[in-house]
Write a structure and sequence with these properties.
The protein is built from eleven helices and 14 strands. The protein is of the alpha+beta class. Helix 6 (146-168) runs antiparallel to helix 11 (273-296).
């Protein structure tokens, strides 16, 4: 690869990840492969010298920042950084050059890129030192995370709406369980209907809400099993409060897949249609939230455990 008349032998790398141990390419075929990876990477890639001058960049840099290639070659990398961060950047670069390694830039910090038109956008940056015949250069792999942050903000707002709905539903107990059916959260409606405070019920099996006859028949376990198999299970029957009194309830258990393997649960008694619609709305909000969580983590997904959602 030619950079201002110099031939650089750089290690191959996958888009957005850099080799931990820089090494020279051994063949023209490897060099050609690297150049294709460099140019067509979905992430912006900037190569800078020890003084922070830009010596090379790929096509994604032009798309992300709005500059033509010739406008950036030879310019300080601070050109791509918002003005409020520029004064401190040379010291950061000096510290990095003193102990170069492949690592994220500003881990734990909010980083931003600056476009030619003056607009900013959030970024993740991976730095990697490369040894060349002309000296060490730094390769920066820059990823625009604008869409990810929008998705996270949308998820946060959805969660706020969900919790607001849950906290304001009084005729339905709404709670969550782990995979074994132990209660892990408790809303005011649950306390009102069941008589348990959160500190009294969290950690206990939800089977304590069933009558002794139903427990002996294995109804709590069967309900969870059928919900997991069918995706949704509904049944009416007696439920038991903390004081031992009983009430008739309509129970709906909706099984969802969750990466942590938790059971989401709602429980309450049969109530007027307005309250039932509110519970249905809360369930729909939660389902959308769970779908977004799973969609946003699709690239990192592993085998998921089954979770359950209960509504009485």
């Amino acid at each position: 690869m030619e950079i201002e008349g110099r031939h650089l032998k750089l290690p191959t790398f996958q888009p957005a990840t850099m080799s931990e141990t820089p090494r020279a390419l051994q063949s023209a075929q490897e060099q050609a492969l690297f150049e294709q990876l460099f140019e067509f990477s979905p992430d912006a890639i900037v190569v800078t010298d020890s003084e922070g001058r830009i010596t090379n960049l790929n096509a994604q840099v032009q798309r992300a920042f709005g500059y033509a290639r010739e406008e950036l070659i030879g310019k300080p990398v601070e050109t791509l950084i918002p003005k409020r961060f520029r004064s401190g950047h040379p010291n950061h670069r000096k510290s990095y050059n003193a102990q170069p390694s492949a690592r994220p830039m500003g881990a734990g910090l909010e980083l931003y890129g600056l476009r030619k038109n003056g607009s900013e956008f959030p970024v993740d940056i991976m730095l990697s030192p490369i040894e060349t015949a002309e000296g060490r250069v730094t390769v920066s792999v820059i990823r625009d995370i604008s869409e990810r942050e929008k998705a996270e903000e949308a998820l946060r707002q959805t969660e706020e709406r969900f919790h607001l709905l849950v906290e304001n539903i009084r005729d339905h107990a709404i709670f969550m369980m782990d995979v074994s059916g132990r209660v892990i959260s408790w809303n005011p409606g649950a306390e009102r209907l069941k008589g348990y405070r959160a500190d009294e019920i969290i950690g206990r099996s939800y089977s304590c809400f069933y009558t002794p006859e139903d427990i002996e028949r294995g109804i709590p376990e069967e309900s969870l099993r059928l919900a997991a198999a069918r995706g949704r299970f509904e049944r009416e029957g007696w439920r038991v409060r903390k004081d031992g009194s009983r009430f008739w309830a309509n129970a709906v258990i909706t099984s969802i897949r969750n990466k942590t393997g938790l059971h989401r649960a709602q429980e309450g008694r049969r109530s007027p249609s307005t309250q039932r619609r509110a519970v249905t709305c809360a369930l729909r909000v939660f389902s959308r939230r769970d779908h977004r969580q799973r969609s946003g983590r699709a690239n990192h997904a592993s085998e998921c455990a089954r979770g359950k959602h209960v509504r009485l």
